[in-house]
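Researcher: Let's do a round of design. I'm pasting the structure tokens now; please hold your answer until I've finished.
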């Protein structure tokens, strides 16, 4: 049985349609990420699921129990659903352990395990105004989880974090599912945050689900240019590219990712010239001109120079993933 059921949810604000007939299910411990451009309805959807916004139509169920909106309850929200807003707040001048004690429903052993998972066990004696942004966010998550919810909703949890704290938080979110057995639903705009984490990705556009599937499915076979662009760099497969690489696009591969193009030995591919090189740390991004067409590819090789002649092959992913 599904843990979460979202059935035909719609919402308008000031006569503008924010969500239109949204439906999906989430199984226990399934990791779902929702992506979409700003204004696509992601945050509104999370708030409706959390019980903070009343839908105009449709219903939300958690373990077959309908989630009531604020028009139906004196105090909005649902105790079994924890929601971390982009604009979370912690009370200033409180010790962390004091802040976490108020809603605690866990045993001492369970609480200690939670603090370890959230990587805050060394922060318990500090005051909340002595913490970094990343530390404050992990404490905010622990404060939500101390009441033992069944579902954790995360709204852009990595925004405004430096790389060090972002990587720590990614590990925390993974352990929340694996060690604490709490199901997570995340909204994010960065493909690097979700492709390696999610079991399923839902793509929203103007309040409508336009695609959902595994990360492999939506990355390699996006339904349109909007979906392709949300998950990374892509090249539209023009008739010129199709002819150049002798493609037969029976697998409907309209969007080509940089990693599909490979540099091979002379004579084994199509002749091309490197136009620009961008050093990205562990790899380089090359912009290559082939038959008056600009193609982007990624390589681990660092010896290439602008103007070098190279030879390209195009290797498509499998049709079924």
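Researcher: That's everything. Go ahead.
Model: Designed sequence:
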């Amino acid at each position: 049985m599904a843990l979460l059921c979202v059935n035909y949810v719609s919402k308008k604000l000031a006569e503008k349609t924010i969500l239109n007939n949204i439906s999906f299910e989430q199984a226990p411990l399934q990791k779902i990420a929702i992506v979409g451009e700003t204004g696509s309805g992601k945050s509104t959807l999370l708030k409706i699921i959390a019980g903070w916004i009343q839908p105009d139509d449709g219903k939300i169920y958690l373990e077959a129990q309908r989630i009531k909106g604020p028009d139906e309850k004196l105090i909005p929200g649902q105790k079994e659903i924890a929601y971390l807003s982009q604009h979370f707040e912690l009370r200033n001048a409180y010790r962390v352990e004091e802040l976490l004690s108020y809603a605690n429903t866990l045993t001492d052993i369970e609480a200690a395990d939670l603090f370890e998972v959230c990587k805050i066990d060394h922060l318990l004696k500090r005051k909340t105004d002595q913490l970094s942004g990343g530390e404050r966010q992990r404490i905010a998550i622990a404060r939500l989880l101390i009441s033992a919810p069944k579902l954790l909703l995360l709204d852009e949890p990595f925004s405004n974090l430096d790389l060090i704290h972002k990587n720590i938080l990614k590990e925390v979110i993974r352990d929340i599912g694996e060690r604490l057995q709490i199901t997570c639903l995340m909204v994010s705009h960065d493909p690097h945050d979700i492709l390696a984490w999610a079991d399923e990705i839902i793509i929203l556009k103007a309040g409508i689900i336009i695609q959902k599937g595994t990360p492999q499915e939506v990355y390699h076979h996006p339904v349109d240019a909007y979906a392709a662009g949300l998950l990374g760099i892509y090249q539209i497969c023009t008739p010129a590219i199709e002819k150049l690489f002798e493609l037969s696009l029976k697998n409907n591969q309209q969007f080509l990712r940089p990693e599909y193009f490979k540099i091979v030995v002379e004579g084994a591919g199509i002749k091309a010239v490197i136009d620009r090189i961008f050093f990205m740390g562990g790899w380089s991004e090359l912009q290559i001109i082939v038959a008056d067409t600009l193609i982007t590819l990624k390589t681990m090789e660092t010896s290439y120079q602008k103007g070098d002649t190279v030879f390209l092959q195009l290797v498509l992913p499998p049709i079924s993933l």
